[in-house]
Amino acid sequence: MLLRLTTATIAAATTAGVSVFTITVSRQFSNTSILPKPFSNIPWRHRSKAIQEAQTALIDYLHTTRSMPFVYAENIATSSPNSLGKIVSKIPFSPSTFSKSFQRFLRYHPVNELDLFLESIGLNVDENGNPLFCMLAKNFFLSDCKQFDSACALAGIGFPWCKLGLLCREECLILDFDKCVLKRRFNEIKDAYGLSSVNVIGICLVWPRVLSGEMDDLLKDMKIAFVDYGLAGSVEDTVDAMLEVCNKLRLIYDLGCEFGKVGELIGKSKRVLVDYSEEALVRKIEYFCKLNVRKDEIVLFLLSRSEIFGFDMEKRVISVKGFLEHFGLRGKDLTSLEQKYPHVFGRNKITNLPNVMRSLDLGVWFFEKMKNGDHSLFSTYTLRHSKEGLDKIYENNLIKIQAKRTHFHSMVKLDFLHRVGFGENKFAVKAFVRLNSSGSQLQQRFDYLLSCGIGYSSLCAMVKHANILNQQEPVLKQKLDFLCIDMRSSFKYLDIFPGYLCYDLEKRIKPRYEIHKWLVEEGFCKIKYSIATIVATSEKKFNARISRICSGKVPRELANQKLQAICLGNLVP
Fold first, then answer.
1. Dihedral over Cα of 450, 454, 457, 458: its sign
2. How would residue 549 be classed by pLDDT, with cut points 50, 70 and 90?
3. So what's the pLDDT on residue 14?
4. DSSP characters for 182-225?
5. Nearest CA to 11 among 212, 205, 188?
6. Entry's Gene3D superfamilies (predicted)?
């Protein structure tokens, strides 16, 4: 039976579970980019020599004066430039006397060894939010710090000193455990699962809770993959190589794959984990995530279809109609799509394909085709001839756009339309003319409307008809809230009347709706007009309708009083 640690800290970490995944390649646990450059008080021509002298003096101080083992003194002194720089900044610099001055300073001014230690293991000493800092806040010397003893023990096992900070994330304070307990747990994992020291070190650096006696299901997966399927033999026997593979594996689990369920699949996917970088894996996952299917299904699909990593998903040009035909969509189904979504057809880049499929409401269909064995069609598709999918109207307007002085800004807007699913066609040109914001603003507003709950294909169709993306998010929010709350309608009505979002809320939508609502509630108007009829009717026709409804039914004073109250003025003669 493996050793299990039961502390309040570990219980909290266990109940917290796995954090929500955000696709990111960088997992730096120490961010020093915002810190001032160390040793900035020393002229650059003397800086290199001064740093060496300062490090040598600090090593001697920690080893001789503080009785610290030399290897750890060296690790701390050479891996904490910011903390060392702060100490150096306290003494005047002189090239001829710096070495002796710094040695004398250390002799009479004890330094904050804690900051040096924390930075050397990869933690940012300015991040006070780390729970380890709170526990160590009262300690100044490492001789009083049991966490330092634990770090030394782990380094003796083989953990890289500069990466020990990775064990202090996820509220799992591994360094707070006794060094003997940590050594015993480490050896138990090796013996129980048949993993090598390098394997266990890499796993622990990515999942620190493994050392606390948790995550046995993960270790079962690791045994199947690394031992039973020989993944360990395909990975270079170094901590860095193992850490790289484990970071890829964490990506897989963070996307929804269950611990203890995917060991066999991981073992069979050695090529993906060894041959392709984490960045390549992220790019492929992000690509298929745009289809709006479950992330865990995407990961399982990619692991089982490793050849997809060799497909070109960026440079190729496709004809949307030809691509759909290549995947078996023909006849009435294809004709129906052309009639319903004409703005999607034409040419586009294959990098935009996921959004093209979502614009056609075919995201799930396309993914199922790929998952069920048609993924090879992806690589075999080519344009049938040089003019397939070309639109003359688009080509002519593209020449005009490129000839303008503002062509760069214009092309960014046009690229946005293609990116969200518009093909190279006349509808893209018409929509382009209506847009008067930057590409980033357009994308931000498009994403906002999606987050509100508007369907992807519906939103693309709305962009085709109306210039809704020229408005800022707060304005759009107010109009959507009024539509759903005050008018008691839904986003589906925008499929019928996308122009609703283009009208002024305070000057047109609200007052017109309020007067119609009042007339209906008071019984003066028997017809309940649609939102489109209320809002889109011209001012002249709207005034005539109100006057006609009120004439002979509503007392003149009452009508004009109500109209003035909602800022419409006197409409009843």
1. negative
2. confident
3. 35
4. HHHHHHHHHHHH---HHHHHHHHHH-GGGGGT--HHHHHHHIII
5. 212
6. Transcription termination factor 3, mitochondrial
Q: What is the DSSP letter of 438?
A: -
Give the closest residue to 116 by CA, choosing from 152, 149, 86: 86
DSSP state of 163: G
What's the length of the chain? Answer: 573
Average pLDDT over the chain, rounded to whole? 86
238: DSSP letter: S
Letter string b/e over residues 134-146, b meaning 16 or more CB atoms within 10 A of that residue's CB = eebeebeebeebe
The whole-model pTM stands at: 0.80
Query: Which one-letter DSSP state was computed for residue 36?
Result: P
CA atoms within 13 A on the CB side of 55: 18
Of the candidates 509, 461, 468, which has an alpha carbon nearest to the alpha carbon of residue 485?
Answer: 509
Q: Which residue has the tokens 């392709």?
A: 276
* Residue showing tokens 């496709």: 318
Q: What percent of the chain has pLDDT over 90?
A: 59
Q: Half-sphere exposure (CA, 13 Å, Cβ side) for 490? A: 4
494 and 501 Cβ atoms separated by less than 8 Å: yes
Question: 482-485, long-range: CB within 8 Å, 24+ apart, which pairs?
Answer: 482/509, 482/510, 483/531
Cβ 363 vs Cβ 293: under 8 Å: yes
CATH 1.25.70.10 occupies which residues in the chain? 401-502
Distance CA 550, CA 561 (A): 13
Q: What are phi and psi of 348, to 5 degrees?
A: -160, 170
Question: What would the two tokens of residue 117 be?
Answer: 């230690």
How many Cβ atoms sit within 10 Å of the Cβ of residue 90? 11
The count of other CB atoms within 10 Å of the CB of residue 455 is 16
What are the angstrom distances between the C-alpha of 347 and each of 108, 325, 418, 472? 75, 14, 9, 30
Instruction: Identify the pLDDT of residue 440.
Output: 93
Q: What is the mean pLDDT of residues 191-219?
A: 93
pLDDT tens track for 467-484 = 899 999 999 999 999 999
Asked if residue 10 lies in contact with residue 213, where contact means CB atoms within 8 angstroms, the answer is yes
Determine the Cα–Cα distance for residues 92 and 159; give it in Å rounded to an integer.
38
With contact defined as beta carbons under 8 Å apart, do 416 and 341 qualify?
no
Q: By CB neighbour count within 10 A (0-12 exposed, 13-18 middle, 19+ buried), where does 358 fall? A: buried
pLDDT at 134: 53
Residues 6+ apart with CB under 8 A from 207: 215, 218, 246, 250
Q: How far is CA 9 from CA 13, 185, 366, in A?
A: 6, 17, 45
Which amino acid is present at 249? Answer: L
15-17-21 Cα angle (round to 5): 155
Average pLDDT over residues 22-51: 63
> 401-502, what's its fold?
Transcription termination factor 3, mitochondrial (1.25.70)
